[in-house]
């Protein structure tokens, strides 16, 4: 299981390049929307990686001269979707008189299995220096705007530079990424009507295994210490229908961290009717349509103007009750080592796949005799392979889609998971039948047949605790 998980993760990881290579070519030069100006820019990160972006700004009126304006460096959420992903928000801010920089996130040092929020913070500060050098930017109204995962790095950046005059976050998470991911899985599964063993498998077993295997980057990162060091005015916002960032709990944690650090200039804002990225939703926050509210950016623009004198804030709008408790993770048990998973997977390959392979070899060599237990053995080999490989594929699919593609649910089980559970029961029953047949006919078997069927039964016995651990038999 863990071997295939690692292969999946590595296959999805962009290839690394040298330190001076552009991180991501990104989209073609973004054209300037009507009434706005767009300028393609490049800037160099602290470690020498060249980053590319676009500055979106209000178009200067003819003959009006240069006017200094408030400005934002916009930090993307998880993944590397390119600067165009934040273009609608950047345009909305620019239409309200704010200069914005959107840029392509690095891939050198950032991938599916590796990332460093400290490095991402330095990248944002490099972009801030670029904005600060522009004639149309007011250095006294220059700040950071960060979405989701970007809000893990933004407080680090703010604590490192006095050039950051304010910090705005959207969908910031106040707990470790592993616990947040588990909570998000629970929200999507509950929304789809899933119950039974699958939520525990995804929220606990799969996440713990990826953590043990070292392919869950920054899994235990604690954001609170970085928030304690932020001295600038802070506007932390969540959509009331945020199904990813645990808005109520994250807001409480971030507020307490700021106050522990002595920061009294913060506003915690919960916005009714909006989802994780403060966009509109047609499905209670579980969809991902791209649709900005008509007044997007108005509150932020007003807040920036008064941020120098900001006072302690209170939540604007009702804070939603978090439907599910925040999962906690204890250190993995000895049997949760990736090496034990690898051993189990090899046993399944040798036992379940080895039986039909040796049968083919025997046929090729002209040995057509078969052991007396061949019928239950054939069933066990087929069922064991289908269940282990199918279970592996399904769990990987659910992880890759963040439990957001569920499909039809029957009796609290997605149909693929229900089929896998039935196959698991059939595998256990067939293991018992094969063992009884082997015991009854062992004197009629050759030594080679005993070994073949014995390995097959051994794989079936290992399958039992493995299936229990992965939730297929509980």
From TrEMBL:
Task: Kindly indicate where the leader peptide sits in this chain.
Answer: 1-17
Q: What is its EC number?
A: 3.4.-.-
The superkingdom of the source organism is Bacteria
Protein name, entry field = Alpha/beta hydrolase family protein
Locate the transmembrane regions by residue number: 339-358, 379-406, 418-439, 451-472
What is the main EC category here?
A: hydrolase
> What Gene Ontology molecular function terms does this protein carry?
hydrolase activity
Write out the entry's keywords from A to Z: Hydrolase, Membrane, Signal, Transmembrane, Transmembrane helix
Recall the taxonomic lineage recorded for the source organism: Bacteria, Bacillati, Actinomycetota, Actinomycetes, Streptosporangiales
- InterPro entries from the entry? AB_hydrolase_Est10, AB_hydrolase_fold
Q: Does the keyword Cell cycle apply?
A: no
């Amino acid at each position: 299981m863990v071997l295939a998980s690692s292969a999946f993760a590595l296959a999805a990881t962009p290839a690394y390049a040298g330190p001076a290579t552009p991180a991501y070519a990104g989209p073609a030069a973004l054209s300037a929307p009507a009434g706005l100006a767009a300028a393609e820019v490049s800037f160099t990160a602290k470690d020498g990686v060249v980053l590319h972006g676009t500055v979106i700004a209000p178009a200067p009126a003819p003959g009006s001269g240069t006017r200094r304006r408030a400005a934002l460096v916009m930090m993307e959420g998880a993944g590397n979707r390119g600067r165009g992903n934040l273009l609608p928000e950047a345009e909305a801010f620019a239409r309200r008189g704010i200069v914005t920089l959107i840029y392509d996130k690095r891939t050198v040092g950032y991938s599916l299995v590796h990332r460093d929020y400290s490095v991402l913070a330095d990248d944002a500060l490099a972009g801030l220096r670029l904005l600060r050098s522009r004639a149309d930017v007011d250095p006294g109204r220059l700040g950071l705007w960060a979405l989701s995962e970007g809000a893990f790095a933004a407080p680090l950046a703010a604590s490192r530079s006095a050039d950051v005059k304010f910090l705005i976050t959207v969908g910031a998470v106040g707990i470790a990424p592993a616990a947040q991911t588990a909570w998000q899985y629970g929200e999507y599964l509950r929304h789809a009507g899933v119950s039974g063993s699958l939520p525990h498998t995804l929220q606990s077993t799969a996440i713990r295994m990826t953590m043990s295997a070292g392919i869950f980057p920054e899994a235990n990162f604690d954001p609170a210490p970085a928030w304690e060091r932020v001295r600038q005015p802070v506007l932390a916002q969540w959509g009331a229908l945020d199904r990813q960032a645990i808005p109520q709990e994250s807001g409480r944690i971030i507020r307490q961290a700021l106050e522990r650090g002595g920061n009294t200039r913060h506003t915690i804002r919960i916005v009714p009717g909006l989802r994780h990225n403060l966009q509109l939703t047609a499905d209670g926050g579980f969809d991902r349509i791209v649709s900005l509210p008509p007044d997007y950016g108005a509150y932020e623009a007003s807040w920036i103007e008064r941020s120098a004198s900001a006072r302690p804030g209170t939540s604007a709008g009702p804070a939603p009750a978090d439907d599910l408790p925040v999962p906690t993770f204890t250190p993995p048990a000895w049997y949760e080592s990736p090496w034990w998973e690898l051993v189990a997977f090899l046993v399944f390959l040798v036992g379940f796949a080895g039986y039909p392979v040796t049968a083919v070899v025997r046929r090729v060599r002209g040995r057509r005799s078969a052991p007396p237990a061949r019928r239950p053995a054939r069933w066990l080999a087929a069922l064991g392979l289908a269940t282990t490989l199918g279970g592996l594929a399904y769990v990987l699919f659910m992880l890759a889609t963040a439990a957001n593609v569920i499909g039809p649910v029957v009796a609290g089980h997605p149909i693929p998971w229900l089929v896998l559970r039935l196959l698991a029961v059939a595998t256990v029953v067939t293991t018992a039948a094969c063992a009884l047949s082997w015991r009854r006919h062992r004197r009629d078997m050759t030594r080679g047949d005993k070994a073949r069927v014995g390995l097959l039964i051994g794989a079936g016995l290992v399958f039992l605790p493995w299936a229990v651990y992965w939730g297929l038999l509980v």
